[in-house]
Amino acid sequence: MCLAVPGKIVSIDKSNPDIRMAKVNFGGVIKDICIEWLPEAKVNNYVLAHVGTALSIVDEDDAKKTLDAFDEIGRLIEEEDKKK
After folding, report:
1. Which end of the chain is flanked by fewer CB atoms within 10 Å, N or C?
2. Which of 5, 56, 59, 17 is nearest to 35 (CA)?
3. Rg (CA), the chain
4. What is the pLDDT of residues 19-40, one digit of tens each?
5. Whole-prediction pTM value?
6. Rounded mean pLDDT of 46-73?
């Protein structure tokens, strides 16, 4: 099973004409992500990324719902670990 995670584009690197890269914020963690396949992607867009590549642009509300769900899963895991 593969997992794609939504993140917000914070900047786009135009220094290499052969490949478009962007800095993407994943809940406070900034990663360099290839956005070559999304020529319409721009700063402040949310993208769904897998293995360093943006697969699609996603709606901001949907992205935030997914990120909130990940946060909730993390909290539940922490609570369970404390019970052990």
Report:
1. N
2. 56
3. 15
4. 999 999 998 999 999 999 999 9
5. 0.85
6. 94
Helical residues (DSSP H) of 1-84, grouped into ranges: 60-83
CB-CB contact of 57 with 42 (8 Å): no
Tokens matching residue 23: 């800095």
Predicted confidence at residue 82, as pLDDT, reads 87
| CATH fold of 5-83 | SH3 type barrels. (2.30.30)
CA distance 20 to 83: 46
Type of residue at 21: M
Task: Indicate the domain borders of the chain.
Answer: 5-83
Answer yes or no: is pLDDT of 3 > 90.
no
